[in-house]
Every structure is written in structure tokens, then in C-alpha cells.
Amino acid sequence: VFASQNVPQLPSTNADGYAIRSTDPPGVYKVLTSKTHSISQPVPPGSVYRVNTGGPLPAGSDAVIMVEDTRLVSTYDDDLDEDLAGEEKEIETLAQVPEKENIRFPGTDVKKGDTVLHKGDIIKSGGGEVGTLAFVGQKQVEVYRKPIVALLSTGNELIDLENPGTNSSSDWGGVFDTNRPSLRAALEGLGYEVLDLGIVPDELSILIFRIDSHVSAIQRGLHGADIILTTGGTSMGPTDLLKPVIERHLNGTIHFGRVSMKPGKPTTFATIPFENVAKPAFALPGNPASAL
């Protein structure tokens, strides 16, 4: 993204005060404002022009004296001019300021054509990048939408904390699924939308049903999300169904099925075709120390 104009575009002030000529000695001056004087016209001798931080300077001025270096002499009377009632009429400057004092010149912050954001920069929620775009007058930019992530846990021993009676078929009661809530919190904390696919069991005794459950859950993820993220079912056991389900039932490609690290060795990365797009799938081990 390039700046389409200088910022600031015109000489402006970086302090509240009065635009003057650097040759003006200390003394009493008439105060002009945007109500009484056009900035395109030079400030006449014996006058100063009231400016606020960031405001443009009138023609002919080359310095700004800060309010702190002035003293109010008089204000406009209500009876004489209702529009100016109570506003400054005359001030006394208490110092002579040098040329360029308290002035920001065109292009001081950004020059026309400067690069302000690069391709691949992330527009974060902190607002800095959005502020930068607004700063240079950029109303629209082309961006990539943040992906939606589908989360799935596998394992017949897992209990869903929100529905504790619906998932585990373990005789000993099972364990609460911690991976989905933890990963969801991490992803949403980074600003991603999460699609919760729940838990699918992997009990070998009713294998066909378990395979269908895996396929159905992942297909829901393919329909509703951009990335599939699963935990469990990636190791070498007879009930670790994820890799064969991806390859044989979803026509996916396993790009790697193990990594050289521990914990996390069975981490798997695959792509699954869906509507002419190869959607990425990350299959993490079920051990929370590995998955997180």
C-alpha cells in the first residue's frame, strides 16, 4: 500500500498556539481565526492566526508560538459581535520564536509514493494497521479473509464437558476432553472463528460406525470451515483411524505423518479435496501435552 499524498499535505502545526512571522517581535497582536480570515491569504502585519495541533498554517506565516508563551489581552464583547462573543481579540506574545518553530512540513510524516504497508502484513485488532491506512487516506485494500477452523476430537474415552452423558462409551467413565476447549480458546484469542465438530469415538468393536462418524464429522468441517484441526487418532494403534479415513474415504493426501519432536511425534498434515480446493488438515496427537 502506497501513500497517495503527502502527510501532512500542507504546512501545519504540532502545537496549540498562534501562527506568526518569525520576524515579529514580542508585543500585542490582533487574533485572527478561520472565522475571520482565509488561510490562503497572508496574515496582515500586527496580527496572528489562532491554530490548533494538526491544523494548517495561513499563508505568510513561518512559525508558531505556543499558547504558553502568550498572554490574553482582550476578548470580543457580546454586544458587538455575537458570533465572536467571548473569543480572543488580542494577545501578547512573550517571546520571539525562530523560523520553522512548531511546524510540520508537507511529507514530514509520509511522502507521496512511500510504502506504508507491505504485501503479507497482518491487519491486527490493535488498530495500528487500520490507523495507518486511514492516515494516508486509503479507504479499501485487498485482503485475505481469516480462515475458519473446524475442531474435532477423537476417542471413545472422551467426555464432552458440556454434554457429559453423550460421548464416552468407556466402562470406567472416561476423561474430559481438554483439547477442544483449549485449542478453541487459543484460536479465538488470535481472532479466528472456530467451528466445533465435537467428539467422535473410535471403538474398534463397531468399526464401520466409527469410520462413518469420522467421515461425517470431517465432511461437516469441509463444508463449514477452511482448515480442519483434529486431536487424537494419529498414532499406530488399531483404533487410530484418522489417517486411513483421510486417504481412503475422503481421497485426501497425507503429506507427513510423523515429526522429529517429542511430545508431538505423530503430528500429521494432510490436504483434502473439496469443491476444487485442497483444504489443509492438521491432525494432532491426543495427549494435551502434544496437542498444545
Structure report:
The chain has 292 residues and is α/β, with parallel strands linked by helices. The protein has helices at 128-135, 179-189, 207-224, 242-249, 288-291; strands at 12-13, 17-20, 27-32, 47-51, 63-66, 70-75, 88-93, 103-104, 149-154, 158-159, 175-176, 194-200, 227-231, 253-256, 268-274, 277-284. Strands 5-2-4-3-7-6 form a six-stranded mixed beta sheet, with no helix packed on it. It has a six-stranded mixed beta sheet with strand order 12-9-13-16-15-14, sandwiched between helices. The chain is rod-shaped and about 90 Å long. The two termini are 36 Å apart.
What Rg do the Cα atoms give?
Answer: 34 Å
Helix content bin: 10-25%
Number of strands: 16
N- to C-terminal separation?
A: 36 Å
Count of helical stretches: 5
Blueprint of the fold:
Layout: E1 12-13, E2 17-20, E3 27-32, E4 47-51, E5 63-66, E6 70-75, E7 88-93, E8 103-104, H1 128-135, E9 149-154, E10 158-159, E11 175-176, H2 179-189, E12 194-200, H3 207-224, E13 227-231, H4 242-249, E14 253-256, E15 268-274, E16 277-284, H5 288-291
Parallel strand pairs: 3-4, 9-12, 9-13, 10-11, 13-16
Antiparallel strand pairs: 1-8, 2-4, 2-5, 3-7, 6-7, 14-15, 15-16
